[in-house]
Structures are given as C-alpha cells and as structure tokens.
C-alpha cells in the first residue's frame, strides 16, 4: 500500500461527539491553513441535538480553489467518536490516514489493510495532565490539533498566534491551550515520521481574502443597509443572522454617551408575528427584516401575500435547510425556491436574490433594502445552511461611503405641501407599475390612505369593481417587468467558440459546479455556464436559454425546482432542461454533478448510435 | 381624502383646541348594518379624539379582519390606516410602534380576530406592554362570516341559529389582567357616556391599554338567547365606577365627596377620575381586579369601567432601550450606516 502524497489538495474530516467543544478546536486547523495562504472550506456537519450525537467537521484544503464538496471520501479521518467509527473508517480513501485514540486497542473490525493508522494516546495523556474532567474533554481536541500540526506541517507559530487572538481578553486561557497544542505536537514529532505525505505548504492564495460565515455577512449587509427593526423567531440555520446583527449593532449602532439603541430587535412569538412586525415597521417607514428557514416561510406566507398586494417593503432572509416539514433541520438544501417565489395564495410572486459567497451575501443584503423600497414589495434573500453557518473564503466586504440609500418613491412633507392634485397611492404615473408611498404622520392633511390586503383602486379605496381589480393586477405585472431591470444579472461564462450545451446553477452549487466543469473539460466536454443570481429572470437568462440545445440545471433539491421556474417563467422547452440534483442534505459534490452529466451524455450517445 | 373639497363647516359645530371640528375626525360612510354596535363605537372614537384635540395625522389606525376591523375606515380619515390580515393586527402594530414611538396607536379588532385566530398575538402584545390602545369590538360572534359563535360567546348563549354554545368562553379582560396589561377596561357600545372617557383614558395611557367593548351584532346576535345583545347588556351591566377623564389642561373639579372617587394621573399628566361604586374597589390592584371580574362572572354580571391601571409601567421601548431622540424610522444614513472604515476593521478580524 502506497501512502497518499499530496500538498495543499486534500480533505480532512473530524468525527466528534456533539457538545464536546470540538468545533472551535477543528476551526483552528482551518484558520491556520487559511492564514498560511491556502484556501479552505470548513463545513460543520452537525445533528439537531445539543449534546451526545455524532457530529463531523470537514475541511477541504485546496490551493486550486475547489472549495465545494469533492465527494463523500476523505484523505485524513480524525476518528474521535466510537459511535460512528466503523462507518467513518470506510470513508477513508485508499492510501489515506485514520487518526484515532489508541488508549484502547482498535477493534479488529476497524482494520483495513489499504489505509494508514496513526494512534495517539489522547485519553491517557489527558488523564495524566489534567485533573478536571471537563478540561480533559476540551483539551483532548486541542492535543490532536497539535499533533496534526506536526503531521501535516501546519505552521506552529501561526497556530499559536491564532490561540492568542482567539483568547484576547481572556489571557489566562492562552497558556494552557498552547501547552495542550505542544503536547500533541511533540508526541507526533517523537513517534511518527513528520510530516506525512499529505501536508500543507504556505502560499499566497488567500491574500486579501477573509474567512466569514454567510449569516454574519447578511447581518452586516442589513446593518449597513440601514435596517433598524428586526422581528424574528429562532430557527436553525437562520438564528445566527439575528445574533450577528445584535452583536454588531450593539457595537456600531448604539449611542456612545447615552447607551440608547438606534435599532430594535424583538423576538416574536412565531414567524407570523415576525413578518407582521417587519411589515408594520416598513409601512411606518423604517427598514426592517426577519430571518428564517423553510418552516418559517410556510408560516409567513399570508403576510408575504399582503406585502405583494398592498405593496409594502419587507426583507426576508431564508436560510434554507432540508425539508419537507421539519426535515433534516441541520442539513443543507436549496428546496424553498418554489415556496418562496410563489409564497401565498392568489397570483403572487416574489423577488428572490441568490448569493453564492459571503461577499455576495453582504452586497445582496444591503441591496435588498434598496430594492424593497424601490419596488415596494418583499425581497427574499435565498441563502442556505452551507453558506450561512460555515466559514467561507470570501473577498473582503466593501462599502462605498458615497453610497446613498435608495428609498424609492416616498413623498416628504414638502412634496405633500406642494402637491395640488388628489393623492393616489397606487397611481402609476410613469408606467413602471410603481405608485408613490406616503408614511404615516408625514403631513397634517395630505397623503393619508388606507392600506389593505383587500382589493383597492388607484386611490387605495376598497373596491369590488372588476375593472379596477384587473387594472391593479396588470399594474403589478408591469412592476414585475420593472423588477427584471433592477435585480442582479446572472453571471455568464461562455466558451470562446460557444458551446452548444450549458449548465445553469445558483447559490452554493457554485464551487462544486466549477470543479465538475473542469473535470468534464479534461474529458473533452465543454459547457457554457450561467449562475443565476435573481428571480425574476431577466433577458440575459432568456437569451442563454435560447442559445443552447441542452442545459443542465444543477440544484440541491429533489424536484428540480429552479428548472420548474425556468420552464414556467421563460416558456422553455422542458426537454432541453436536464435536471442535475443532489439533495442528500450534504452540500452537492463535484462528483455527483460530473456523474449525472456524464450519464446523460452517454444516453445521448447511445441514442445517436 | 377630501382635502381639496371646500370644507363645509356646520354653523353650530364647535371646534376644539386645535381648531378642528368633529367632522375632521370622521371617516368614510360606514357600510355596516344599521344598528350595529360597532358604529356606536366609531362615533365614540370620533368624539374621544375630538375632545382630546388629537392631531388626526398623528394617529395610526390598525386592524385585523372582520366587520369590526373595517371600522378604522369610518373615523379619522386624515390618519393612515392599515386593515391587515385576520388576527394579526398586534404584530403590525408592534412593528409600526418599534419604527416610530411618537405616533398614537389605535388598534381595532373583533372577538374572532382576537380571541380565536389572533389569541397568540394578543397574549404577546399584552405581556410586552406595547404603547397603544387595543379595542376589541366584542359581539360574541363572527359577524363578517355570518354569525358563527366566537370564542367569547358565553356557555348557553344562543345566536340567531338558536343553538346554545357549549364551550367555555375566553374572557379577554381576565386574560389581559393576568398577562400584565397596564390598563384594562370594559365598556358597552350602547353606553357612550362611559365609553368616551374610557377611550380617552386608553389613548392617553402610556403602555398597553386594553378595552373590551361589548358590541351587539344586530344581525346575528341581538337575539333573546344571546348574552351579548342590547337587552341582555342593559339588564346585566355592573359598573365598577363612573369614569371621568380629565385632560391635564382642564381644571379639576373638587366638588366630589372624598372617598367616592379615585384620581389617577396618567403619564401625560391627565387624570382619570373613577367614581367608586364598590366599597373598596381599587383600580390599581391587579389581583383585586381579577377577583372582581371573577365575582361578577359568577353572578352573571358584566363588569364595566376601568378595572385596572398602572400609570407608571415600562413600555416595550423602555425595556428595549430604544433611542428617545428620534423615532427609528427618522434616523439618517449617517446614524444608520457605520461606514467603510468600520467594515475594514471587521474584515481584519476575519483573517
Ligand atoms: C385566514 C383567514 N381565515 C378566515 C377568514 C374569514 N373571516 C373573515 S372575518 C372572520 C371573523 C371575524 O369575526 P370578528 O373578529 O369577531 O369580527 P366581527 O365581524 O364579528 O366584527 C373570519 C373568520 C379570513 N379573512 N382570513
Ligand atoms: S353582521 Fe353584525 S357585526 Fe357585522 S356589520 Fe352587521 S351587525 Fe355589525
Ligand atoms: Mg365578532
């Protein structure tokens, strides 16, 4: 058996027990590699549980920048959980490594002759070094990180600095942590031929990059975008959007002298109320948002319809997880596409923004508030657990201090004072389908109107007149056309000589798609590619659809939901839209994408023969 | 919405302190059934706002869905109104209030809207002590969907169909008291003399003012078998006291016999004068109020008047620590946006 040899291109997975503090230890590995200039994508695969169930943490290290899931296999398995050890052992590639606690002897059923075993007496070391059982548990994780540093050639100085940064303000914790790292490091140096064939080497591929989770980026976008009211209800994986917003707002939106808050965050009784609060605040003229996941979207639907029909701004962050129903609450998916695009009864549709990276989360979040004010309707930002809760390599976040909020058509007191004609809230004066808002309390005698979800005429008066109703519905369609000109365009990459086939993908399928396309290219198959970034689809999307004979639509749900949207909204021939799907709850892998496209190409070839 | 029409001023209509006439507080013509209790409540709201000299545009009127929830269109046409969705008025009011603490919030709901579909939101708005007046126009039935029993219908009470209700009623007044509402009162649509001062007091109160108003549905519930009919109310009404609302500007009359009344100073300096009928009724005693309500129910009486008030309570903004300088919705971009430099510092910590 030949041990694997690879530098800066591998997958390491940690198998731990939930609630043992392993996450922050494992993150040290990822951040050290990142600081050494190597792109990483750490993914936390955790159960819906507080303590006791198996949890995994996986880091793809890739200087080439392939930061999606490669496949289900790993090169190094750090197997710290006896519960899952049998299954974990099977996922190691031939020639790969299994790192385990050899305080107890390894069961014979865990022996494979095509992988390498590295035993560390972790329990024994902890028993010897620490009195407190809690410390024994915590430092066990730090010790194996120290050992890995020696085994994979992580820069030990960088690792130590990271510890110092992490415990800034809690200095007394620095020394024991570094001590634990050294314990593992020295043990490995003494007992193994360090470094192994699988190792890291410093490079410059993360210069000027940051490592941040998508939910923090969304929260920062909302803070910078001027959101001041938040109504929310806890649900994984969206909760950290609001936690981050609170954290940053406490620091950056609080009056330094009085301690008064220039924002309000209220935990609602449920998602219905959360969305109601957002609509109430937006109606009153504040920028407001809520964050949720699929089950919350279901509950918010009635209010989303009100937002559409009464034309009230709202920003909703949907951090998607595996459905249906409660589904797999801590696993990822892109399966709320249809439920969000058409949330609520009647002819209702909503604008969706779909980020792929943290930087895009930040930008789209801030933009969502502009768009929502301009279009006077709900904007739903479609992230997912993979992007939201994992640290992702990203371009740094940027803000232009010259940027001004676009508040859309809102009449000020002065505007109203000068106005001589009768105010009509839903009059479409310039043909873009968007009327002019007034905010409560603006003017003593002009501009008041009655907001309602029942049918209304251009003057916001209740009506059951069919002509008025139809006119209103047609105007909302004109507004939808306007939305197409305002939402972000897709990102299109065409082959120089123009391929006849293309792939369409969005959100977190980005990296895995890039990798799969490179692999297919090596086999002689080339494709044009389009990353969707918004719904409704604009004319670039339509053109891309028209220009290709076959289009692979890559997404992370069972029912090919985006494909359905493309079929319906662009009137594309369904025969040319081939679904490529990964919906296991794990992020879609490059391997899954490649295999499905290859299968389809083979069928086509057979048919042609 | 008729500001460009020349205003016709009735020769004998009085103006209030800010020069407004009663007409300035009216809305579009009601489309409810003739004799509907809800219309009397609308008239009481108009009178209360007129008498308080409220600037109409400083009021936000918010409702759910139902005949009752339609009424905000029938008063204060210079105010912005929001007829939202069934049972969800509280969350809309909460969001609006968070965005702008300087408006006067008037929420209108029905017993279906509040005690059934919206009971969750009602519970939470009461316990958060949102600064608003929350009125339930309570007819014991679903008027708009044609007379089904609501959750406030009393056991044995029969609507037009004649079948008596079998389920225990939700008593919103007890609930509000129990949940910590800082102002709890009950009125009757047919008793304007008591209702107007209660509305005025509720509008002036800082914190969550809950006002349950028995309001007979003439079409579906004004039957001999109904406990929310005009006849039943007139026979079974028991007042906690004669309520008189005195804005701070007015001189307070002193010709009441001591021991017969309690003056309560509200947050804005106005007083509520409560003429005590009961021997030892204390409107600042929550437990006492709950006990009085229980006792009245046992006797088959309907207690009306101001049952409880805490003029010193902390409203939601006090608890959240929201800025008192400006309403959140008025904050400028400089205050809202931390700027590029702060973001660079955040980037720095993410490496
Ligand atoms: C989600 C939803 N369910 C049902 C309805 C139908 N609906 C309209 S009004 C109403 C009951 C209103 O009763 P109440 O609040 O007591 O008002 P009232 O008409 O008696 O004044 C119902 C069930 C609705 N509008 N929305
Ligand atoms: S149905 Fe009843 S509640 Fe509705 S308007 Fe008529 S009388 Fe009033
Ligand atoms: Mg009712």
Which CATH class of chain B is shown? Alpha Beta
Q: What does the main sheet of chain A amount to? A: 7 strands, mixed
pLDDT under 50 segments of chain A (min length 5)?
Answer: none
Cross-sheet strand order for the largest sheet of chain A? 11-10-12-13-15-14-21
CATH topology of chain B: Rossmann fold
Overall CATH architecture of the largest domain in chain A:
3-Layer(aba) Sandwich
Helix content of chain B: 25-40%
The value of Rg of chain B in angstroms is 21 Å
Instruction: Give the neighbour order of strands across the main sheet of chain B.
Output: 2-1-3-4-8-7-13-9
- Radius of gyration of chain A (CA) equals 27 Å
Say what oligomer this is: heterodimer
By CATH, the superfamily of chain B comes out as Thiamin diphosphate (ThDP)-binding fold, Pyr/PP domains
Question: What is the approximate shape of chain B?
Answer: globular
Could you estimate the helical fraction of the residues of chain A in percent? 25-40%
CATH homologous group name of the largest domain in chain A = Pyruvate-ferredoxin oxidoreductase, PFOR, domain III
Detailed description of the structure:
The complex is a heterodimer of chains A (609) and B (351). Chain A is 39% helix and 20% strand. Chain A has 609 residues and is an alpha/beta fold. Chain A folds into four domains: 6-199, Pyruvate-ferredoxin oxidoreductase, PFOR, domain III (Pyruvate-ferredoxin Oxidoreductase, domain 3, 3-Layer(aba) Sandwich), CATH 3.40.920.10; 212-394, Rossmann fold (3-Layer(aba) Sandwich); 413-486, no CATH class; 491-608, Rossmann fold. In chain A, strands 11-10-12-13-15-14-21 form a seven-stranded mixed β-sheet, with helices on both faces. Chain A has a six-stranded mixed β-sheet with strand order 3-4-2-5-6-7. The longest helix of chain A is centred in the last third of the chain and has 21 residues, at 466-486. The radius of gyration of chain A is 27 Å and the shape is globular. The relative contact order of chain A is 0.09. In chain B, 30% of the residues lie in helices and 19% in strands. The longest helix of chain B is centred in the N-terminal third of the chain and has 15 residues, at 37-51. The relative contact order of chain B is 0.12. Chain B has helices spanning 37-51, 67-70, 89-99, 111-115, 119-127, 172-179, 192-204, 230-236, 286-298, 316-320, 333-336, 340-349; strands at residues 59-63, 80-83, 104-110, 132-138, 141-142, 148-149, 183-188, 208-214, 237-239, 241-246, 261-265, 271-276, 302-309. In chain B, helix 3 runs parallel beside helix 5. Chain B is α/β, with parallel strands linked by helices and 351 residues long. Chain B has an eight-stranded mixed β-sheet with strand order 2-1-3-4-8-7-13-9, sandwiched between helices. A three-stranded antiparallel β-sheet of chain B has the order 10-12-11. The interface between A and B is large, with 78 and 66 residues. Strand 17 of chain A pairs parallel with strand 2 of chain B. Bound molecules: thiamine diphosphate, iron/sulfur cluster (SF4) and magnesium ion.
